[in-house]
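#struct-help
A.M.: can someone run this one for me? Single chain, 445 residues.
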Amino acid sequence: MIRLKLIKKSLICAGVTLAIVGCATTAPLGKYVNGTHEVSAKGKKSLITLNVEVNEGKITAITTKSHNETESLFLNAERLLTKIIANNGHENIDAVSGATFSSNGILKAINSLPRTDGTQAEYVSVGSKDDSNRDDFKLKWSIQPQLGMVIGDYYYQEARFRQGHMGSMLVVVDSANPKDVILAEFNESGRPNYYTRLYQDVPKRMSEYNFSMGKKKGTAWVQSALTMEKLMVEQDKLTFELNPDYDPKLRNKLKQVNRLKYADIDVVAGASNSIQQSMIPLTAKIYDQINGDGTQEKFYQNAEKLLDSKGKWTGITAVLRLVVDTKTKVITTAYYDEIFADEKNQITDASLKKFYRQSKYASIHYVEPARIGFNVMFDALNVHLQAGGSLFDINDLPATGDSGSYAATGFTKRSDSWDLYLNQAEILYKQMRLDQVVLEHKHAF
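D.P.: on it. Structure tokens below:
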């Protein structure tokens, strides 16, 4: 009788029934459900499937059942398996640098393991440790374009200065009132023989250059440009008086008033040479052009935040600008770009966070999934339109189709950016046709 009571109490405490209280506390069940589990998640190119062994609530073994990722990259990502076992889960594990998508596929698959408490946490993608190498960067600036449409008369000047740097100045004014400056934008590309090879011929405005310079000198190149652009737009000012007391020998002495070539322009020191030697002379030429023969070129730009399926901003802004000759009605300049948010936490894709305050076109390190340079794709668009090609019939341009052989042609799949471009092109085209400034462009069928 006593033996039966002990057995009954043992069964009760094991969880056979919860009707009787007063049992001793049972051992925790562990994090995961015991057994052999097959879990899967999307990598970069394929579904990654793992076999996971769980014993006493802990992961004891993980093997890869199947995948179709790039083999060399996946072998790197598989290094995470031992970390997951030691950690008993995917939490707080970084992706492997160079294999971020495959890493996230593995970690997301582990996240789907059945848990003893019945919960299923939402997976948040992670980046590699390299993604955090700028967390202590304190300088702030914004490179976000004005959202919506910008239309006006277009002026552009460029010229090399100081050992070969290329400065360029874009100004858009109100067609009805040319004294009203709508948009001013300065850029500079490093000279071809720049001492840092990485930045030779690289545009500075939205590339890694600003971070590199900011860490060395405490100020980013773009900060001066933005300060001057704001002044030009707010004050409708394109010309500046020379400083009669300017002494070139003192140009690098920050506390000397007569170090300034132009009066009352004390911009951030990081780009004072660029401003004084390039930006201001270029805007002076544009000012003379506005007050002279004017222009026959019209500027159209549309910028739009890209949203995910839930309507949340992805941290990327698409921008398309087109310049059209109003007499010939031919597009003379086209520029499409995707610009990353000003802060990391605004970018939802962890693998892209490191590109904050940069753009796909200007970034040195951004890797286009279509396996051809993002800048190459849209430089080709510019040439295509200048030759009279259609805004929409772009099938002869790089990375517009999936049929190319990587070995033969250098790209293997259609870039998603082409569809984003086409959306912006449709918006601008409708407005340009309404304004009767552009010829008809046929759509691809």
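A.M.: thanks! The CA atoms of residues 167 and 188 lie 4 Å apart.
D.P.: also worth noting: The longest strand covers residues 148-161.
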